[in-house]
Design brief:
InterPro entries: Glyco_trans_8, Nucleotide-diphossugar_trans. By secondary structure, the chain is α/β, with parallel strands linked by helices. The protein contains 14 helices and 9 strands. It has 2 domains: 207 residues, Spore Coat Polysaccharide Biosynthesis Protein SpsA, Chain A (Alpha-Beta Complex); 92 residues, no CATH class. Helix content is 44%, strand content 14%.
Length: 327
């Protein structure tokens, strides 16, 4: 089965370094755990760390630039983005990389159905065409909440779609883009998908777009690092990423979910063959300070040199015992 991904070289070297590791993990895990035919739309130079990673895993590379790049810049003007998101530096190459997925229906001419995936994932289990229900147009998972309800939005990070039918919808999206119409829900490409395809989007099983903050799941096919990127910070993890994200996804203060969340970060760094316990520990401290600011005992633990194995090795049991038996 074909799985398309899109990579566009950013003007920011720090971001490029972080995302090259995301690409490394996604391709490494795809090769180890699946038989997917990976095809990458690539906008960048021949000599670049992205190219090194792609060549390492022998994926098919299609040199590509988003077909409506100029319309993108005219619609999402620098002034609009600065005013709306308080961004001083606008990297249109990076934004265009997210829009390149719209060109896939016009590139793919052989298969009826294809899978699209962002690069910030771990492919955890074998994925074949018969793993999916053959959707009429497109299937996508929920943005942040597992219990999808009316009014929620779909996440565009993993998409399974009918190529021919999706081509029709993308033409509508391109028409909006050319006419300067900005989506009213969500952001950029995801906003257009939610608006134009709203009545035709089917719910993708959660296991194909499993978010780490939902906790550990042995049945997950694709782990999608939606939100903070492993090893990164808010500024490098998305156009609209902020601490408000953590308040939302961990609003129930579910310690088992936090434990699974941290375990997936450990898995990620294992795929890279590197130890980044320092970043995991720092990120853990940040999350717990945000969630439990009133708890003095927890603040003392967070500020101490808590060993990482207490974080991702039975973390929830550790905190349970600490709170209820250690006082």
């Amino acid at each position: 089965m074909k799985c398309y991904m899109c990579v566009s070289v950013s003007e920011d070297d720090v971001t490029s370094s972080l995302y090259s590791e995301l690409l490394e993990v996604s391709l490494n895990s795809a090769r180890k755990n699946t038989s997917l035919d990976i095809i990458i739309l690539y906008d960048g130079p021949d000599k670049h760390i992205y190219m090194d990673v792609m060549n390492k895993y022998n994926v098919k590379i299609i040199r590509w630039k988003f077909s409506h790049f100029e319309a993108l810049k005219k619609t999402f003007t620098a002034e609009y983005l600065k005013k709306t998101f308080n961004k001083n530096a606008i990297d249109y190459n990076k934004i265009a990389g997210t829009f390149m997925r719209f060109d896939i229906p016009f590139i793919e001419m052989d298969d009826e159905y294809v899978l699209y995936s962002d690069i910030d994932v771990i492919f955890n289990k074998e994925i074949r065409l018969d793993s999916f229900n053959k959707t009429k147009v497109i299937a996508a998972g929920p943005e942040t909440d597992k219990d999808f309800a009316d009014g929620n939005i779909f996440n565009a990070g993993i998409l399974f779609f009918n190529v021919k039918e999706m081509r029709k919808h993308v033409n509508t999206i391109f028409n909006k883009l050319e006419n300067g119409i900005i989506p009213k829900v969500s952001l950029f490409d995801q906003g257009y998908i939610n608006e134009v395809c709203k009545s035709d989007i089917e719910l993708l099983p959660l296991e194909f777009n499993w978010k780490p903050y939902w906790g550990h799941n042995d049945d997950a096919y694709i782990i999608h690092f939606h939100g903070i990127k492993p090893g990164g910070d808010n500024s490098a993890s998305g156009f609209n990423m902020s601490d408000a994200f953590f308040y939302h996804v961990f609003r129930d203060k579910n310690l088992a979910a936090i434990s699974g969340y941290l375990k997936y970060f450990k898995d990620y760094f294992n795929y890279l063959g590197k130890n980044n316990d320092k970043w995991i520990r720092q990120h853990t401290r940040k999350i717990l300070k945000l969630l439990f600011p009133e708890n003095k005992l927890l603040r003392r633990i967070i500020s101490s040199k808590m060993k990482c194995y207490l974080v991702y090795n039975n973390f929830s049991n550790f905190l349970f015992k600490l709170f209820f038996f250690g006082r």
